[in-house]
Amino acid sequence: MTTICRISTIAIAIGCVAFAASIARAETAYPMVMSLKPAAVQLGQTSEVMVNARYSMYGAYQVLVSGSGVTGEVVHPPLKLEDLAKKPTLDKLPIRFTVAADAQPGVRDVRIATPQGVSTVGQVVVVREAVFKEEGDNNSAEKAQQVSLPATLCGAIEKNEDVDFYRFHAEAGQSLVFHVRSARLEDRIHDLQEHSDPILTLRSATGSTLAASDNHEYHADPLLVHRFEQAGEYLLEVRDVRYKGNQYWEYVIEASDRPFIQTVFPLAVVAGQAETLSLVGHQLPGDGTVNFAAPTDLLPGMHWIDLPLGEKAGNPAAMIVSGLPLVREADTANDSPDAAQAVNFPVGINGRCEREGDVDYFAFEAKKGDALSFEIVARRRLSAIDSHLRVLDSQGKQLAQSDDLKLGKRNHADSWQENWIAPDDGRFVVEIRDVHLRGGPQYPYFLQISRSQPYFELYLDTDKTQIGPGGAAAIFVRIERKNGFTGEVQLAIDRLPHGVTASCGRILADKGQDGCIVLEADADAPPSAAEVTIRGTARHTLPDSQVLDLSAVATVYQETYQPGGGRGHWPVANHTVCMTEYGDLRGVSLSTYDVTLKPGESAKIEITIDRSPGVTANVTLDMMMRHLNSNYANTLPSGVTLDDKEAQSLLAGSATKGYLTLKAANDAPPALNQQGVVLAHIALNFVMKWTYASQPVRITVLGERGASAP
């Protein structure tokens, strides 16, 4: 039975989803952040940043920043609701960021909440050094902007053939790391279809090239390290390698004499247990090692960790906290199956491809029928290795192999072989190498070998949900089932804004792929925004009758506009629910909210939309999230479909009435009260749309004798 989660919170209108038809645009749109200028803020300082967006940020009242230690506030005073009728276009908005002295450096997601809705994600970089903003015409060596290093240089490759120059003084023997973030800051920008590809060049005062860096390892952003032999003036040049430009191509260059960590060995540690780490990077203290014990309250998983580096703090290290027993690759050779290092599972192995052509082998004993999973975490923690994994029998015959893995909608260079079944009792070997047979200190990996257990992962189709007074909105959740789990999953949501209640649906067992949560807002709920957590719980019975309680927190995706009209997704830190003022639609009402079908039957749902005064934008009706030929969410029971021939789904001009028809296949299995929702989409651009929703629809499919599912 569907659980009703009563949570005092503001409503939600499902922010964006792809749209395939060419239709009239919305009158109301939430802001879409394009860039922050400058894109960096300094530790321990309060500074002002200009947010650039498409669609208006008028009336902005709240800034949401991921993580802790960084807060933001809108510089202009909040506007009263009665003042919002004017609604001028405001596509530039100053934000004042305050950064705690002990905040962790790195990239933070930023959103702006407005009465029109919460914005898409922008990003700001928290840095240690003072921030210098690009000023004036610095497009030649003669006009180079004078700066003092160490510092953080912030600017933009604003147009084709834009080349920015900075002039600085260096002392003899001084070493500096120039770390660029630009392309990586654009992954989450929803409508920036082409990204920068920066190249960094260090020149003498007369223009001679001393060093240059284009891509670094697997990033499009450069990393350049240089030791200056002579004191004097030098030039730093940054441009796009193709001489292209865009007003939103911001860059952040951290020019520092601090330690810079690229990776560490071992990658994984146990919380509370002391470990000697070998650091890989530049300008490292002492002998390049550090003694460290991860805080005991760190949960197993991937973390950014500040290491004790002495006088000068460096950048956080990308590491893993593991709950497995850990072993380290032995000093003795393990580069052939016969010389494989023996391990017992479950185990976490810290290893490294130490030289070119290095291939590592680990041997373990398994019983016939043992189900095991082998996961390499490396590139996800900034190791240079592009791992390749194989499982071999005692004779060296390949039984399984894995190169890249896919998590949700994103591919990764790490390897993961799940639910491998041992064919016999005996000795087996796992082989790890770089796919290109590269190696060196920057090629560590962490291999986890564990018994496979049933589990599931959840993914949100969008990262924002907007909802108007008295309205409704839907959040769609997609499941990926692992290692034999086929059960039903109950959804839940936490920390909704004040004034909203949630009807939490479920993902059906077996072939059920999607579920939804429908939010409803009080008619008098004021504009507000809150970051929510969406969870799923389930029970799974093993063959030996042992019952497992399973749970997962949903990974959040923001939609991105891809070249050619494709709808992409990029993971972000949080999902935000925003209570808005009235939008283009004030409500979506139905002729019925309970549909009962027998196999082979159809049921018509008549739909009425309440347009706001003067709104004539085209509205499309649906019960699924679709774009072009792709289906991004479908909560209908198995065997139940929308009959597109029996529908009035496009409401043009001032039309307010349409209908959809649900049809049950002749062999549709029984289902009881599965939660669905009717959606009303208005396009914001070709890919993004504002989605309004009805109250929940309960769909029941009767069995052959009229009985529904238990």
Give a quick precis of the structure.
The protein has 710 residues and is mostly beta strands. Helices cover 0% and strands 51% of the residues. A hairpin with a 5-residue loop joins strand 46 and strand 47.
Key traits:
63 strands; six-stranded mixed β-sheet; 710 residues; 0% helix; seven-stranded mixed β-sheet; single chain
Polypeptide structure, described:
This protein has 710 residues and is mainly β. The chain contains no helices and 63 strands. The chain has a 7-stranded mixed sheet with strand order 1-43-45-41-39-48-49, with no helix packed on it. The model is unreliable at 1-23 (pLDDT under 50).
Topology, please?
Blueprint (H helix, E strand, L loop, with lengths): L2 E3 L26 E6 L2 E3 L3 E9 L7 E4 L4 E5 L17 E8 L6 E9 L2 E2 L3 E6 L3 E3 L11 E2 L4 E6 L6 E8 L4 E7 L16 E7 L4 E5 L9 E5 L4 E9 L9 E7 L3 E6 L2 E2 L4 E9 L6 E5 L7 E5 L11 E5 L4 E3 L12 E2 L4 E6 L6 E8 L4 E7 L9 E6 L5 E5 L2 E3 L2 E3 L3 E6 L4 E9 L9 E8 L3 E6 L3 E4 L4 E11 L6 E6 L5 E5 L1 E2 L6 E8 L6 E14 L5 E7 L1 E7 L5 E6 L2 E5 L5 E6 L3 E4 L4 E10 L7 E4 L1 E4 L2 E5 L5 E3 L7 E2 L5 E8 L6 E6 L2 E5 L5 E5 L3 E5 L9
Parallel strand pairs: 3-10, 11-13, 12-14, 22-26, 27-29, 28-30, 39-48, 40-50, 52-63
Antiparallel strand pairs: 1-43, 2-4, 4-7, 5-8, 6-7, 8-9, 8-10, 13-20, 14-19, 15-18, 15-20, 16-17, 16-19, 21-23, 23-24, 25-26, 29-38, 30-37, 31-36, 31-38, 32-33, 32-37, 34-35, 39-41, 41-45, 42-44, 42-46, 43-45, 46-47, 46-50, 48-49, 51-53, 53-59, 54-58, 54-61, 55-56, 57-59, 60-63, 61-62
